[in-house]
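Just curious: can you write whichever protein you like plus the matching structure tokens?

***
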Amino acid sequence: MNVLLINPQNTGYYYKLGAFYPPLGMAYISSYLKKHGHNVKMVDMNAERFNYKDFDYSQFELVGISTDTVRFPLVVDISRYVKKCNVPLVLGGPHAAADYERILRDNIADYVVFGEGEIPTCQLASELEKGNRYPELDGLAYSKDGSIVSKKQDFIKDLDNLPFPDRDGLPLNNYKSRFDKNPATSIITSRGCPFNCEFCSASQFMGMRWRKRSNESVLEEIKLLVKKYGYKSIIFFDDNFTLDPKRAIDISEKILKNDLKISWWAFSRADEVVYNEEMLEALSRAGCKMLFIGFENINDEILEEFNKKLSASIASSVVEKLKKFNIDTFASFIMGGLKDTKDNVVKNMKFAKKLGAEIVQFSILTPYPGTRLFTKLKDKLFKKSYEYYDGTHLVFQHPNFNSSQLRRLFMRAYYYIYTEPKKLFKRGLPFFWRMVTSTTKNKIRYPLEVYPDIKQS
């Protein structure tokens, strides 16, 4: 079967700051489909021109689109043009899984895949090839005779059974992200997250059971990235690369033993850093230059509200430990918790500056569909357009802020951090300018009338 997979253009400010990489989720689905005899074309709208309005979808027998919340209005618009060509359309991604009933009821797509997309998408393609439009498959939902048919899926137990992502099907030269002065690419070595933070959909979308690839499989993919594709910098996009410190040490030792001279960064947690010096020493020797740490807030009440399962008391120790092993900190903070106040936001700004982290990121608390936070706040949402769900806007009725107040604090936080002399000329001016210009343009690029339940507020 001929299958078209589309990764819609990201309109969020992180993308506009230049942080985008090959869409590995789509690339995994492509490689799995190809492994089972299907022909696949991938389109990444972040990295190549794609006129979705004039494209001839009829040359394909199945179109698949992945979507998160902020890109959903664009996906709705693309779906109209796919539908005009009478080609079956399947949606995947965290937003599709969370909002599947409305998507199917409103005929935006014919099918929705839950969670991991490789197996159900491939099985759907095979069943459609046989002429079966309504297959009963785990991980698939569709509308039949006015009723929603859905079956949740078990998560893949052995990730080594998946082929490596189909990077050759992507325009690799068009990805311009760099790290440590070199072109950088991404890799995923595990799935799932056991922490179930209030604001994050990772535990719901990929499961609370952490599933890891074998260290040998990870090493082989790193070798491929270095020797075939020539990358010297890599980003580990696991939700938490250091969850198992012994595993992180072993992968680091394998990188060293195989003389893979790479620099890299990964996502971690504050407690895993503070209590695992042996791991930090191994990571540093193997080329780790930075770890992303979600500090989120220095107020323990707000951390408890977020279900972070952390105390703010260890935050300062994190940066000290990382500096000891010459590892930079990518520090992330969230403003706008339900118990947050202006005074507390200012305290977080001052703390973030005092930390001395190489990169500091601020986000405004956003209740994404599929999170427990969305369930809690869905009756208090006043921004109904999903294009505001980008982490830079307040979209719900907050007890202590209105949207303009919190947005001013958000902008002030970036100005406060990135105009200090130490950062000003290293990355401050260009970073702050791109951030300001990308977050002050509130034009809705895609027509909201295509999804009548969501109105501009």
Observations:
- Residues 63 and 89 are 5 Å apart (CA to CA).
- The radius of gyration is 22 Å.
- Confidence is low (pLDDT under 50) at residues 437-457.
- The first strand starts at residue 2 and ends at 7.
